[in-house]
Design brief:
4-stranded mixed sheet; single chain; 295 residues; Alpha-Beta Plaits; alpha+beta; 9 helices; 3-stranded antiparallel sheet; 29% helix
Amino acid sequence: MTSRESGPDSPAPRHLPGHIAAALAGAGGAADSAGQPWAGRSLAGDDARIHNFDDDDGAADAGYLAAVAALRSGTGDEAGVVASLATARVFIPIVAQLAEEAETDSGLHADKQADMALVTLKAADGRTAMPAFTSAGALSAWHPDARPVAVYAARAALSAVAEGAELMVLDPGAGVTFVVRRPGLWALAQQHSWSPSYADAELATEMRQAAAAFPAVRDLQLKPGRGVGAAAADGSTLAGGGAGPELQVVLYLADGLDAAGVQQLVAGLQGEWSRNVLFGERVDSIEVKLRRATH
């Protein structure tokens, strides 16, 4: 690089905008912006590690992509997708929120204090959902100003539960958006295995035991609800990853009940199920269908 001296014909120097100049005026001291001294701090070697993903290239976890591909092809299920998240890294979006503003000596307004906040969403049914992204690119495309924080998916699920979220939405706005519903979210946060309610034999047994107190119920079956599937951006449908309702309960009833009797029976059954601990843990949302018993 060559240097150039100024002379009578040199252009007038360009001045930085005031807010940039003011920020630079406060830089270069012995401490960082939080007041912590730079002395004794290393930016190399083990001292530089800030999380468990220093060599992360930001790409989606291969196990998760394989599980979603299996779900697409019909060779896998949504339980397999949630299981793949047990060891996967995801990105959760963090945004800055101004908590306090101050005025500098030069009369300029500057951020005196800013808080970093998790981003949450509102689902169609009003519940709180936390977005998480399998790749840094998917997060940037969704919210360019959000800071991606890399965490294991189990830790993201734990944060979602702490924030009161009942759903975790993976890759909103991307080619495939997968929703982890409340029971799966809780299982992931506790690092337990998960099976959807419609495929849960233990749950079916307990629900049938509760229904035995209602003689008009001749049989009961659990099936996937209308909201189990998810629509991909290309128009295809996945057999899992939807927000719900995820459980359809088919009741086979004896003849002889009028409309009021059916309504009373269903209300009584739902009351019994709601008091069941296993039902509360494993069922996110439910729909009931009535059928006439054939025997």
